[in-house]
Structure formats: C-alpha cells, structure tokens
C-alpha cells in the first residue's frame, strides 16, 4: 500500500513515501491507520488521488492527510506538421535555463512550505531542466531565444508510444504576453508529431489559473483532475 520514493528521498534528504489510493479503497480505517503507524518517524507520506475516488478522499481526511494542491490534466491532438527546425537547449544554456526554472514555479507547485523550502522547490525544477537537457528524464528541452541569445522560454517533452507528454512549459516574466508560450506549445506538438504521437497531455496545478486559461486557449481539453495529499509523521 505504501512504497518508498527513493529518488525523491535522496534528492530532498528526507524519507518520502507514496500511498496507493487504489489499495486504500479496499481497507478499513483501522487497517489504514496501522499501515501509517508502521512508517518511520520523520516520513512524509504523499498520495495523489483522482477527484472522483470519493471514498479514498474521505479516508485520507480521517487519517489526518492535508490537501496540498490539485492537478488538472489537459489533452490535445498532435496535428502540427511544421517543418522548420526546433531549437533544442544546449549545455551552454543550462545555467540560464536552471535559473529561470528555479523561480517560475515558486507560486504554483506542490513542493511548497511547510513540507518543502523555497530552496528545495528551486533546486527540484532546476534539476528537472538539467535532466531534460541531458535527455535522462524528459527527452528534450526546446527553447525560444531572442536575437541577443537570451532564453525567453522553454518546454520539456517526452513520449510514450503514440502519446506525448509536456513536462514543463514556462516563459520568462519579462517576455510574457508576447505569444511565446503558444509558439513553444506548437513546437512541442511538432516534436510529438515527428515522433509519431497522435495525442499529448500536460498537467498543471488547479491554483495556476494563468496556465489553465492558456491551455484552454490552445484548444486543449481537460481530461482528469486529481488531488495531492500529504501527511508528515
């Protein structure tokens, strides 16, 4: 029912575990309490549960879990067949991209206080960008740069069969409302199309109203809503 999140635990230097909401459905409150009690002191137990799994949500509340953030998944079709070359991030841009990623998600993330510090939040998204540039988590990081070679925005992407996944999409605050986000979205769709994907998805936080409005304006449709719950022991 509870599994160790080894990478997360090592990265954040704390014991992080994940509770499976599907397995939670078939247990009584007493059984679930026993499982929680068996976790080591100092653990942070996380659970992501779909919004329509009402019995699991009710049980999480009774177990003392706190609602941290909601996540909405948007889906769309990979119908972009643009042929102009995509601009992939280089190692030379890594520090600039990491600096941008470390600040743009401070207000919209489940990695928030009191469970995670501002610095841990910044380090996590900087690491995500590093791995995307290396192609070791997301497959690639596509960038938009100015004539002066300044990074104005980025989008990270990966594929699974005929499905594309947008990991992160962000535009530098001073370059927002210039159409750069839509340009990056089109580049991501082109990447997926070139990889043979038929559809794609992207997650964003329910608290991130600008992102929700943006994905809706791009023709994406909401396909799922889930909630993140935490319990610190």
From TrEMBL:
PROSITE patterns: GNAT. Keywords: Acyltransferase, Transferase. It comes from the Bacteria. The keyword Transport does not apply. The keyword Acyltransferase applies. PANTHER family: AMINOALKYLPHOSPHONATE N-ACETYLTRANSFERASE-RELATED, AMINOALKYLPHOSPHONATE N-ACETYLTRANSFERASE-RELATED-RELATED. This is dTDP-4-amino-4,6-dideoxy-D-galactose acyltransferase.
